[in-house]
């Protein structure tokens, strides 16, 4: 039986721990993390504006 997985994005004004709490309330536990820069064009030059963080969750067996 395949377990359910889902990626959760840490919102711009949200802490990582707040995102983890949100995941736990939905019955997921953290099993992975990925980050990538988010760019915007400023004066024709790509400029990093923030780091996008995503947490991979796997559904708890008890849920």
Task: Describe the protein.
The protein is an alpha+beta fold. The chain has one domain. The chain has 1 helix and 3 strands, in the order βαββ. It has one helix at residues 16-25; strands at 5-9, 28-42, 45-59. Strands 1-3-2 form a 3-stranded antiparallel sheet. The longest helix is centred in the first third of the chain and has 10 residues, at 16-25. It is elongated. The relative contact order is 0.34.
Spatial arrangement of strands, main beta sheet: 1-3-2
Number of helices: 1
Compute the number of strand runs. 3
Tertiary shape: elongated
The total domain count is: 1
**Nearest-angstrom radius of gyration?**
15 Å
Tell me the helix content.
Answer: 10-25%
Catalogue the unreliable spans: none
């Amino acid at each position: 039986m395949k377990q359910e997985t889902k990626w959760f994005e840490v919102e711009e004004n949200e802490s990582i721990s707040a995102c983890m709490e949100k995941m736990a309330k939905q019955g997921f536990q953290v099993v992975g993390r990925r980050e990538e820069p988010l760019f915007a064009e400023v004066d024709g030059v790509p400029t990093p504006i923030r780091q996008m963080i995503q947490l991979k969750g796997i559904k708890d067996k008890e849920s």
